[in-house]
Known about the structure:
The protein is mainly α. It has helices at 2-17, 27-44, 49-65.
Amino acid sequence: MSRKLLIVGGISAALLAGCTQNITPTDADRAIIGAGTGYVVQQVRGKGGSDRLKGAAIGAVGGALCDDVRLCQ
C-alpha cells in the first residue's frame, strides 16, 4: 500500500511542480521542473541512483503533461 501511495504522491508533486506563477512555461520547462521534483522526492526518501532516475523520469512526464490534463492553467 505504501508503494502505491508513494507513486501517487510523487506523480502529484511532479504535476503540481510544473505549475508556475507569473511566467508562461513551455512543456520542456515543466518537464525540467517535474524531473527535478521527482529526483528530490526520491532523494529525500533515501533511495539510490536508479530510483532517483525513475523518479526524475516520472516527474518529467508529469510536468510536461500537467497542462494537457488542465491541471496547470
